[in-house]
Every structure is written in structure tokens, then in C-alpha cells.
């Protein structure tokens, strides 16, 4: 039995879909979610729905009952993820799972990326527990720029502080396909996959792609960190979040998300989704009736 945590999130939904597409019977798949009422679409397919709240370890124990493989999708609450992840790992060990896969971050053991410390701590804990594991070190999602694309179609400008730093992003569907491959095939014990897109691009190239695809002239405006923080806090982003986002921009400028080792395309058996394809989808969403970013 395969259990996917965080199954109603952006990535989790795609992982469930990818696992089913690989021919796993729905009744052998568990969508482990904080709010089961939000998983009705999976229930309609025959997928098992189990409550699994990272902050309530008792729900994790029951969610993993009978599991052979578990995918721990990292939590979204920065600053709280280490204890949450440890609770999941402990429950997986108690359940006797054969493989625990974890969505980490690119080069987690050596990077200075601002988001890395919680992933580093989680990886260390997984290793210490003696579980068979597969570390899926995900790079950047192209969809992270959905809001920037939507705003740029109105303002004509994408702002940032990444300079000419490159981003080897891939679509969420690519990372989901990688997770599904690990969950549905054998030989992934004690493996580490550095997952990123096949091609790295700059923010100026992102703006050029939006221009070409949408027909709206869009440029990239590079700001210094203080200017960037001021701009996004002025748009309503809380200052602590803005400072983290500014550090991510600095990390991109320093090349921390630019590596293209090719693990992702090898694992999924095809090239990663080109930047233009995902931007085309983001432009369509931004132009939709609700004008909501992905």
C-alpha cells in the first residue's frame, strides 16, 4: 500500500494522479490529508482517504497502518516543519514501512539556501531512524512564478532581486512523476535524487517568455534587496515573509537553484517540462474568468 501525505496540496494531488496513472489499483493508494472532506475527488476514484495531521501524531499512526511505502511531502509551515516531519518519520517507523520518501531541497546537505535548514534536519533524522529512505531533493517549481506572471500582465513588469542568477525550475507535474516512479518501482532504498529542470533560465528570460506567449510587453526590473522588500511589503506581503523572499532572490543570484544534474529527467524517463509550456499555462490561468494565479 502506498501512502501520500499532504495529498490535497498542489504537489500531493499530482502525485496521487501519477501513481494511479502508473497502474496502481486505487484501493492500494491512501491519500493522507489534514482535512478528509477536501479529498472527495480521490474518494470518488476509490482511493482510501485517511486523516493525517502533522501536528497530531495519533492520526499519523492510523494513517500509515498497513503501508509499504510512504511519501512525506514537506510541510508548508516554515519554522514548524522539523517537529512535524519527525512525527511523520516516527509514525512510519512504528508502522514498519519498507520505504520512506521525502521531498527535500536541492543539495540539502551542502547548500546555504535559506530554506534548507529544516530539510537538512529532517534528512538527518530520517537517516538516524534506520528506515529505508529515498530523498527527493526538489529544486524550484516553475509555478512559483504564477503570481508574478499574473501581475506582470497588468503592470508590464516582473520585479525581483536575483540579477542574472539562473533557475533550473521544473513543473510540479515533473516532480510528481518522479515521486510516483520511486513509489511504484523497486530499488530506491538509500537513494538521493537531485531533482531540477533540464535548463536553467534568468528572470529576464522569464519576462521575455511571458512577452512572447501573451503578447503583452513585459520586462524584468532588478532591485536591490531593500528595494525589493519595500516593494513587496507595500503590496501586502508581511515583512518576515518579504525578508525570506528577498533571501531566496539572493540565493538565486548566487546560483543555488541553477544546477542541472539531470536526475529528474532520468527518473521520469523524459525531458522536464520546458519553461515556455508552464508559462503558457500560467498566462491562460491569469487570463481566465477569475484572473487567479496558479
UniProtKB/TrEMBL annotation:
It comes from the Bacteria. Residues 2-249 form the NmrA-like domain. SUPFAM superfamilies: NAD(P)-binding Rossmann-fold domains. This is NAD(P)H dehydrogenase (Quinone). It comes from Saccharopolyspora spinosa.
